[in-house]
Amino acid sequence: MLRSGGQYVQRRAKLVETVRSNGVKDERVLAAVGRVKRECFVDQALQHRAYEDQALPIGLRQTISQPTTVAFQTWMLDTQPGDSVLEVGTGSGYQAAVLCEMGVRVYSIERHRLLHERAKAILNELDYRVLLRVGDGSLGWPGLAPFDAVVVTAGAMEIPKRLLEQLREPSERKPGGRLVVPIGDRGGQRMTKIVRTGPDSYESEERGMFMFVPLVQS
Ligand code: SAH
User: Fold this and answer.
1) For 47, left (φ over 0), alpha (ψ -120 to 50), or beta?
2) Ligand 1 touching residue 101 (CB < 6 A)
3) φ and ψ at residue 157, rounded to 5 degrees
4) Which residues pair with 84 in a beta bridge?
5) Which atom belonging to ligand 1 lies closest to the Cα atom of 70?
6) Alpha carbon separation from 74 to 7, 80, 109, 181, 214 (Å, rounded)
7) CA distance 216 to 218
8) CA of 136 to the centre of ligand 1 (A)
9) Which amino acid residue places its CA nearest to atom 17 of ligand 1?
10) Where are the alpha helices (DSSP H) in 110-158?
């Protein structure tokens, strides 16, 4: 059974204010963070820490990302409701739930089967509709491409080329797809956003240093 009583409501509201004071200004993103029960995505023994603005262990040497980081990446994805979004690194499923609260269609890939199974169970129990798969997410999900946005929640040494190909090309109806990926070594990664501006053209910008677990490429 999930324990997610009223004790968490206030803490969640406080977390939203922390995320806001850390510089995330988008009200839609803040509202999405305010709706996701983070306590459900961590081990019971860590539930009392679920509303600290901290990454926490989820087993297999992986972590649930810090809420400010989740909010920041979500903000950078610049989604509209109905967009198709791929996440690489399902982990706990928390980021996927935040994306669902943004009203987008979420697809997510995780390399560890155990984490995949756990995330699947909790997302299902909380009624989040996410299509999940086990595999190497750095290869993307070609059968579902193109995506309006792709978020990598693990640190990559370099830009995964296969993900670039799977971004939507801009059209009159829709802007080009965005890839948000932390790039760097274990010492820290630069948050990088790449926008597809044409069939063979991309623009990139960088925003701040973060610390993620490594993206493991096969
Ligand atoms: N988005 C997650 C964060 C999880 S940490 C959350 O909200 O909890 C990053 C995750 O990426 C880990 O679970 C790790 O196993 C996974 N990962 C690392 N390399 C991967 C790859 N190549 N393909 C898919 N998942 C990967």
Assistant:
1) alpha
2) no
3) -70, -35
4) 105
5) 7
6) 26, 11, 17, 11, 19
7) 7
8) 10
9) 89
10) 113-125
Question: Do strands 84-88 and 149-152 pair parallel, antiparallel, or not at all (unpaired)?
Answer: parallel
Residues 6 or more apart whose CB falls under 8 angstroms from that of 92 comprise: 41, 42, 58, 64, 115, 118, 119, 122
Quote the ligand 1 centre to 216 CA distance (angstroms). 9
DSSP helix/strand/coil, 28: helix
Please give the backbone phi and psi of residue 211, each rounded to the nearest 5 degrees, phi first: -130, 110
| Residue nearest to ligand 1 atom 13, measured at CA | 91
Q: Measured from the CB, is residue 69 less than 6 Å from ligand 1?
A: no
Closest CA to 93 of 117, 74, 69, 75: 117
65 is a catalytic site residue: yes
pLDDT in tens, the chain (218 residues): 455 567 899 999 999 999 999 999 999 999 999 999 999 999 999 999 999 999 999 999 999 999 999 999 999 999 999 999 999 999 999 999 999 999 999 999 999 999 999 999 999 999 999 999 999 999 999 999 999 999 999 999 999 999 999 999 999 999 999 999 999 999 999 999 999 999 999 999 999 999 999 999 87
Count CB neighbours of 197 within 10 A: 14
